[in-house]
Structures are given as structure tokens and as C-alpha cells.
Amino acid sequence: MTNAPDQWPLWEVFVRTKRGLNHQHTGSLYAADAKMALENARDLYTRRQEGVSIWAVPATEITASSPEDEGPFFEPAEDKVYRHPTFYPVPDGVENL
Amino acid sequence: MSNTPERSESAAETHSADLEQGFLAKIESETKIEPKDWMPDAYRKTLIRQIAQHAHSEVVGMQPEGNWITRAPTLHRKIGLLAKVQDECGHGLYLYSAAETLGTSREELVTALHEGRMKYSSIFNYPTLTWADIGAIGWLVDGAAIVNQISLCRTSYGPYARAMVRICKEESFHQRQGYGIMVTLAKGTADQRAMAQDALNRWWWPSLMMFGPHDSDSAHTQSSTTWKIKRQSNDELRQRFVDITVPQADYLGLKLPDPDLRWNADRSHYDFGEIDWDEFWRVVKGGGPCHLQRMATRKAAHENGRWVREAAAVYAHKQRTDQQVA
């Protein structure tokens, strides 16, 4: 895919807002390289100290499940109620289970 | 069971009808539409247009306010204004990002703006003649934007709604900054008060125009409402803005330039005068005082930055190639 000489690739940005939390997808931006992507992400998405850590990923590197397949792809989990603790009765009087 | 053309066509039609049903069911149940979901072409197109024009507005909006950065009366005011203009750029970028999820590129959107195929909000075609204009803009223009954007936080397209939530968090400092300027001027010397009143006189009606035509004259309203892009009507939002803002003007001791403005106890709303719709359409069609200047400045900024973008791209390529060789 050829770009015009002034075109930069698209990056997706993930920010950890504070220690203990996961990185969350926050948005996208254009940058010429990885260093610029991090700096741009800092300036764009953390002006009010909303982040302690940033991941920038070239958008082309992301593999995503398809919304059309949402049903069938996730179907195996639908009828497996035995994965939930509520499926298993706990006898009266027994604690810490 | 032969696969005749008629049979494939009717299977395709059924599939298409199913997709449309699925889409409408999501809208009905307040389930967000996300990128890559099937959506009617018209939904996609109208969103690209609306979100991108919103983005263009933020970026062009940096110009009338940027105009006063070097002339802010104090350092406190200067850093506040710098931060606000920086935010507007950021808002534009969040919105471009959201528009691009619908299958367009920054290059396409910027080209559409520069070639006049997309618009930006007409409010930014008015000049900032005095420092008081900066106060009036923050108070009234950002105030009107906030009313609109709060409503849009519930828009049906996920990325647009999320951009609105992020923007709303940042926008309220903008309005307080502007109102703070108006307070200082309105409670200051007679000259300062007069300057504040003059700015209010020039920015009040254009701010009301930001909400668009009357609902009855609004071409896009029906599909936007059915698809829950638009959650409240132009007139509803405009009324809300007036109701909120009149007491704020009263506090300042400034007079709104509308002889028909009065509280209506029966309606529990303010009645207000009719907008000059000739002026509204004249400005929407490109007749605003600063339209040519805004566009020329925008294009020049883009063109003058081209060498930087090219140099950065070449440098990045060179770094990658050098690493590969090494």
C-alpha cells in the first residue's frame, strides 16, 4: 500500500490510567514512527494526567474478531452455566465456599 | 435446487433485510453500533459527514481564539487560553479518529474540507475584535456546544458517543474560563463593562444559530432521529441553552440583545425573539465575514507543514532500513 510522501501510518492507543488497572483502548492517531506515536499519544490522551502508561500499536497489527460472527464465535460459552459458581449448591451451614 | 439468478437475488434481498432488521433492533434497544457492524449506507455517510464537520469545526475554531493568545492581558489568562486552544485541537483529533472508524481517512476528510465539499460550524466565521470576545466565546459558544454535546453523549454510534464523553469532561473548563473573563470585565471599569456588553451583543445571536434551523426546516432530522444519531431536536436544545444562560447574563449585569426575551410562567421557559434566518443561511452558505480567511489560513497551515510530514516519514523509513541492514 503506497502512501503519499507526507502520509503517516495509523496507530491505536491504549492507556493505563493508574497502576492496578489494565490498558484500555482510548483512540487512534497518526505518527511517523513509534517514538512519535508515544509522544503524540501523551499529548493527545493524557493532558490531564489520565495515564501512567501508554501502548501504541500500528493499526495494521491488530487482529479483531468480526461483529458478523459475534454470535457463532462466542456461542460455545452460552450454555455452559456450569462455569459459574451459582450452578453449584452449597449446603446450609457450610461457610467459606 | 438450482442457483438461478432470481433465487440468488431474492436470497440476497432477504439477507439484506435481515441485516437491516438487526441494525434497527440494536438502535431500538439502545445497543451501540460499533465499527465494522453492518449499517445502512446512509447511516454511515451521514455520520462521516457529521463527525468530520464537527472535527473540522474544532480545528478551525482554534483560529479566532488563537488570535488573542499573544495579547491576553495577564499570564494567567494566557496560559488558560493556550490550554483551551490546545484542547480544541485535541477535540478535533478525537473526532477525526471517530470518523475514520467508519471507513475514511484523514487525507480524504481534510481534502473535502479544503475543496469546500465539507463545512465547519459557521460560528467560527465571526471575528474576535476585542479581548471580551474571548470571554463571550468561552461562555456562549462553548456553552452552546456543551448543551449539544451532552445530548450527543447518547448518540447511537459508539466511537462518536465516547468522543463526546471525553470532550464534555474537558469542555466545562472552557466555559468557566470564558465566564471568568466576563465576570472580571463586567465587574470592572466602565470601559471594561462596555467592552463585555459589546461582545455579548455580537456573539449572542450567532450562538443561538449554532443549534441549526427550526426543526420544521431541518432536512436531516427525520433519519437522524430514527437512527438515534440525534437525541434531541434543534429547538429543544436551543431552548435549553437560553434557559441556562439568561440567569448567567443577569449575574453579570449585562443585557441580552433581544427585546422579546422574557420569562413565560405558563411554559416555564424563556420566550425569545426570532433568529434572522436570512443571515443564518447567508453565513451557512459561506458568507460569514471570516470564512475566506479561515479557509486560507487552514490550507496554508496544512501546506506549510507538508515538508515536516515528509521529512518525518523519510526519517522513519531510513531508521527502519538502517536497522534491517544492521
Structure in words:
The complex is a heterodimer of chains A (97) and B (326). Chain A is of the alpha+beta class and 97 residues long. Chain A has one domain (10-87): Roll (Ubiquitin-like (UB roll)). Chain A is 18% helix and 22% strand. A three-stranded antiparallel beta sheet of chain A has the order 2-1-3, with helices on one face. In chain A, a hairpin with a 6-residue loop joins β1 (10-16) and β2 (23-30). Chain B is 69% helix and 2% strand. With 326 residues, chain B is mainly α. The radius of gyration of chain B is 23 Å and the shape is globular. A two-stranded antiparallel ribbon of chain B has the order 1-2. Chain B contains 13 helices and two strands. Chain A: This is 1,2-phenylacetyl-CoA epoxidase subunit B.
**Silhouette of chain B:** globular
Number of helices of chain B: 13
Distance between the termini of chain A: 57 Å
Largest sheet of chain A: 3 strands, antiparallel
Span between N and C termini of chain B? 62 Å
SSE string of chain B, helices as H and strands as E: HHHHHHHHHHEEHHH
| DSSP helix fraction of chain A | 10-25%
Strand order of the largest sheet of chain A: 2-1-3
CATH class category name of chain A: Alpha Beta
The second-level CATH architecture of chain A is: Roll
Widest sheet of chain B: strand order? 1-2
InterPro entries (chain A): PaaB, PaaB_sf
Pfam families (chain A): PaaB (PF06243)
Protein name (chain A): 1,2-phenylacetyl-CoA epoxidase subunit B
SSE blueprint:
The complex is a heterodimer of chains A (97) and B (326).
Chain A (H helix, E strand, L loop, with lengths): L9 E7 L6 E8 L3 H12 L7 E6 L11 H5 L23
Antiparallel strand pairs in A: 1-2, 1-3
Chain B lengths: L4 H24 L12 H20 L1 H5 L8 H26 L5 H9 L16 H22 L5 H29 L3 H20 L11 H6 L7 H19 L9 E3 L4 E3 L5 H11 L3 H14 L1 H20 L1
Antiparallel strand pairs in B: 1-2
